[in-house]
Amino acid sequence: MNVITDHLAEFGDGLLLTVGLTLLSLAGALAAGVVVAALRVSPVRVLRAAGMAYVEVLQNVPLLVWLVLAVFGLPEVGVIAGLFTTAVVVIALYQGAYAAEAIRSGINAVPAGQGEAARALGLTFTQSLRLVILPQALRTVIQPLGNIAIMTLMNTALAAAVGVVELTAAANRVNLAEAQPIWIFVTAGLAYMALSAVFGLVTGTLERRLAILR
Amino acid sequence: MIAVRGLHKRFGDQTALRDVDLDVARGEVVVVIGPSGSGKSTLCRCLNRLETPDSGEIRVDGAALPAEGRALARLRADVGMVFQSFNLFHHKTVLENLTLGPTKVRGDSRAEAERRARELLDRVGIGDQAGKLPAQLSGGQQQRAAIARALAMRPKVMLFDEPTSALDPEMVGEVLDVMTGLARDGMTMVVVTHEMGFARQVADRVVFMADGEVVETGTPAEFFASPATDRARDFLAKVLSH
């Protein structure tokens, strides 16, 4: 047990960085997801194609490849950003593709009459989407978005591979010094599980509070 | 108020509307009847371009119906629509359903929109339901709220697409009463319905459609007493025999 208590500071710093990475990239992913889902249902063909291209390109390359590409490739083309910032942006854009697909399925689940009624009132397509369709769509996909939140949390561990010292990297460093992998990584694993449990609770509460009576 | 010329609409290889002409004068109540699949709902939905016609021209208050975009949205704001399945916004209270259009499209202040919304809800007899969600109302109450929502936009014309077809029989009357009141107040109305009593008593003119065509049109007195075509006679014999 000493191996954990002796290194509480490292674990604590790593955990904080993991939470920061997760919350920031999740916020970005939801924003990207809403925008890309809106593109995918747009009446304009070019915008629909752009939304689809985004999802296909982002989803069909592993996150680790994107991270390595961004960390080593962006400086080559003159974009200099910190490792943490780069990781947040890459994870946000990557998870954004998954969020977009979940949100799009929510949009498709909103009865067609809702959009027709909105347009019949004189709302533009964008207003209908923002004021009528999306508020209902998002409530129906709280559960899948919760899963994406957990997936985002797990995927932040990949940032360890490009030098961000989040929880997994911190655990790895402690292990290099102490060589007690079971204690160290079980501890890290339990921390991830605790964070996931928080997401699960939040998702369940939101789903109960925001359920739509039909 | 509404002028339709040579309207054609196809769904795949099915022709829904064939060369339809229709004129609705200001303050006139036109009731469109006909068998299922005769194209009457499609005609109604073409009038505010929820369906895009394949050819033909529609003018509302002198202006040709714009194809899309903001101009179309502006025109739709002047054309109220009531649907068979109410289509109230599920996530908003009844009051919010009524204030959404006026505040976002007309630019009314929230206070003004709410004041008018409450007036309209009182007028359709559900003033005490303002704070409820649509799902907490009966079908008849939902449809009356939907009529009030359309009226909140101060429309020039009201379209009714089978407004009582999804209602339990005991709730049909309360909705028809509201519509009759509107007609008395001089609203221009196009009503697609199977309610022959309403057509007889409230319509200024009855339009009978079959197979995507306007087969016959006339005053309710003429039409119900002595239909000119076999198809209208046949239809009336079926719907009026019970």
TrEMBL record, chain A:
Belongs to the binding-protein-dependent transport system permease family. HisMQ subfamily. It is found in: Cell membrane. GO terms for molecular function: transmembrane transporter activity. Residues 15-203 form the ABC transmembrane type-1 domain. GO terms for cellular component: ATP-binding cassette (ABC) transporter complex. Keywords: Amino-acid transport, Cell membrane, Membrane, Transmembrane, Transmembrane helix, Transport. CDD domains: TM_PBP2. This is Amino acid ABC transporter permease. It is a multi-pass membrane protein. Its main location: membrane. Gene3D superfamilies: MetI-like. GO terms for biological process: amino acid transport. The chain crosses the membrane at residues 15-39, 51-71, 77-94, 148-170, 182-206. PROSITE patterns: ABC_TM1. It holds the Pfam family BPD_transp_1.
Automatic annotation (TrEMBL), chain B:
PROSITE patterns: ABC_TRANSPORTER_1, ABC_TRANSPORTER_2. Keywords: Amino-acid transport, ATP-binding, Cell membrane, Membrane, Nucleotide-binding, Transport. Its main location: membrane. GO terms for cellular component: plasma membrane. It holds the Pfam family ABC_tran. It is found in: Cell membrane. Gene3D superfamilies: P-loop containing nucleotide triphosphate hydrolases (3.40.50.300). Coiled coil: none annotated. GO terms for molecular function: ATP binding; ATP hydrolysis activity; ATPase-coupled polar amino acid-transporter activity. Residues 2-236 form the ABC transporter domain. InterPro entries: AAA+_ATPase, ABC_ATPase_HisP-typ, ABC_transporter-like_ATP-bd, ABC_transporter-like_CS, MetN_ABC_transporter-like, P-loop_NTPase. It is an enzyme of class 7 (translocase). It is a peripheral membrane protein. It comes from the Bacteria. Its EC number is 7.4.2.1. It catalyses: a polar amino acid(out) + ATP + H2O = a polar amino acid(in) + ADP + phosphate + H(+). Belongs to the ABC transporter superfamily. This is ABC-type polar-amino-acid transporter.
